[in-house]
């Protein structure tokens, strides 16, 4: 099942077994496409699926 809860770049990298820089590159494309959004939580940046992204899941 796809992850739909907010997560940091590091959380996603750990879960996927790839580098944080690879995740960051993919997240930029997903953000530019409107499929994920980001929000700051203290010193962390959380990424979450937008309604458009969720509708495609």
Overall description:
- This protein has 57 residues and is an alpha+beta fold.
- The protein contains 3 helices and 2 strands, in the order ααββα.
- Strands 1-2 form a two-stranded antiparallel ribbon.
- Strand 1 (36-41) and strand 2 (44-49) form a beta hairpin.
- The protein is globular, with a radius of gyration of 11 Å.
- The chain starts with 8 loop residues before the first helix and ends with a helix.
- The mean pLDDT is 93.
Record the SSE blueprint.
Layout: H1 9-16, H2 20-32, E1 36-41, E2 44-49, H3 51-56
Antiparallel strand pairs: 1-2
Helix pairs in contact: 1-2
> Strand count, sense and closure of the main sheet?
2 strands, antiparallel
Strand proportion, as a percent range, falls in 15-25%
| Rg calc | 11 Å
Outline type: globular
Q: How do the helices and strands follow one another from N- to C-terminus?
A: HHEEH
Oligomeric category: single chain
CA distance, first residue to last residue: 9 Å
> Count of DSSP helices?
3
Count the E strands. 2
Catalogue the unreliable spans. none
> Helicity, in percent?
40-55%
Broad structural category: alpha+beta
| Arrangement of strands in the largest sheet | 1-2
Overall average pLDDT: 93
């Amino acid at each position: 099942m796809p992850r739909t809860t907010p997560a940091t770049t590091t959380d996603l990298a750990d879960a996927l077994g790839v580098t944080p820089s690879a995740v960051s590159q993919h997240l930029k494309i997903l953000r530019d496409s409107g499929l994920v959004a980001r929000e700051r939580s203290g010193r962390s940046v959380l990424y979450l699926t937008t309604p458009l992204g969720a509708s495609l899941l």
